[in-house]
Amino acid sequence: MDSGDRNGKGNGRRNGLAVRAEGLEKRYGEKRALDGFDLHVEQGTVHGLLGPNGAGKTTAVRILSTLVRLDGGRAEVAGADVVRESALVRGRIGLTGQYAAVDEILTGRQNLEMFGRLFHLGAKRAALRAQELLEQFHLEDAAEKGAGQYSGGMRRRLDLAASMILAPAVLFLDEPTTGLDPRSRLEVWDTVRGLVADGTTVLLTTQYLEEADRLASRVTVIDRGRAIADDTPDGLKNTVGGSHLDVVVRDHADLPAAVEAVSRVCDGEPLAVDVERRVQGAVTDRVAALTEVARTLRDEGVAVEDIGLRRPSLDDVFLRLTGQTSEPVEKMKEEVAA
Ligand SMILES: Nc1ncnc2c1ncn2[C@@H]1O[C@H](COP(=O)(O)OP(=O)(O)O)[C@@H](O)[C@H]1O
Ligand SMILES: [Mg+2]
What we know:
alpha/beta
């Protein structure tokens, strides 16, 4: 294992594929949950599967972990076919949420020992493995407490530990931080980084661009059952622009002036969200752009309710990839010209 790679971002070397999925199809009645979905995950990396609610993330994970049968296409996980060699696949993967039905009454240690016994480790090996995992997931201090008293982040770490009992080659994490407070989220991120440093390949689904950016060396964006982009986090952010300048004007009548001011400093077209009296544009030289727009609007006597820089979100990625904008910028420009 390449121990020089501690941040889970991969080292750019090609190691072979942990997941190879081609043309996956899954229908539920008329609904196409997956519609020709492709995914390639390199061994020893965290790969992000990024998409909004209903995009098909969980369906993909369930197919790849052999819980759901596919209607078309083919997939190999950890070197085995998910349909013809499903038992082999199951022996090589971990999945949060499936085996990790943590018992609230048992302590953290008892939970992990119980899972070890479920996997036929024997009492002594199960106790040893529980201790290792408690250390690895920083749960030693809470080891003898009932899991029902754990915080959200600790609970999620216990879930992760339980899914790692057999040190799987590939671990599927389906939205591991959804619903967690920011601090717990950071804890889970640290844990995931540690897993990859130990050689596990992680497929992580998320609705947060920031999460994919922090953890993944590569990201596949999924929309309506199809992969619409596959890139590094930096590549994706370049698609949408590194930062966004965001201006909200007090009076709706001033929106065209704000569009004009932002368009002078931003890359490509600014985006106007009419109902929010908001204009946003991708900017490269962040501070210069902010300063210039603020000065222009002040000189023009435009009352600004809010102005700031923010990092791109999944919404921004979708906007650029699918071309769906909330309000035509062209219309605003016509108003400025009139
Ligand atoms: N068991 C099911 N029965 C019917 N429709 C389903 C089922 N599972 C998922 N779907 C539908 O398939 C689509 C993709 O769902 P899902 O994979 O859960 O998306 P995500 O995890 O990205 O939110 C959604 O439209 C969802 O309603
Ligand atoms: Mg889901």
